Amino acid sequence: MRVQADLDHLDRNKLTFKLQAILAATKYPVSSVADILGIAAETIWRWAVAYNENGIEGLYPKPKRPKPSKLTLAQKLKYLSGWIQEKQHKARMSIGHWSDYVIQSKTKLIHITL
């Protein structure tokens, strides 16, 4: 049923909870609503601003930015080089599985020097 699917979609993103919090904050002090719901008042304010600016779309979670790698380029290359050498060694030992053959054929083309 489409209605149930829409409700499930809203609940998955906690949109009904956010909308109820915003609505309650229009009738009661935001701090009281926040205390009852167990969230920060700033969160309700942030939801209200997002809703006023973008409607229901503003209440969907925002995609998170990827975190920068903690490894340096040299560390990445060293790890990758070790992994390739290990796969080359295993591929030389036995080519029994198709992925061993693929790795062996690909690694012959890759030469990394550190």
Blueprint (SSEs and pairs):
Blueprint: H1 2-12, H2 15-27, H3 30-37, H4 41-54, H5 73-93, H6 98-107
Helix pairs in contact: 2-3, 2-4, 3-4, 5-6
Give structural notes.
This protein has 114 residues and is mainly α. It has two domains: 2-59; 73-107. The protein is 68% helix and 0% strand. Helix 2 (15-27) runs antiparallel to helix 3, helix 2 packs across helix 4 (41-54) and helix 5 crosses helix 6 (98-107). Residues 109-114 have low confidence and may be disordered.
What is the count of DSSP helices, taking H or I runs of 4+ residues? 6
Overall average residue pLDDT: 80
Tell me the number of strands: 0
Q: Termini separation (Å)?
A: 59 Å
- Number of structurally distinct domains: 2
**What global shape is seen?**
elongated
**Poorly predicted ranges (pLDDT <50, ≥5 residues)?**
109-114
| Helix content estimate | 55-70%
Computed structural class: mainly alpha
| Percent of residues in beta strands | under 5%
Give the ordered list of helices and strands.
HHHHHH
Profile the largest sheet. Answer: none
Radius of gyration: 27 Å
How would you concisely characterize the structure shown here?
The protein has helices spanning 2-12, 15-27, 30-37, 41-54, 73-93, 98-107. With 114 residues, it is mainly α. It has two domains: 2-59; 73-107.
Main traits of this protein?
114 residues, mainly alpha, 2 domains, 6 helices, 68% helix, elongated
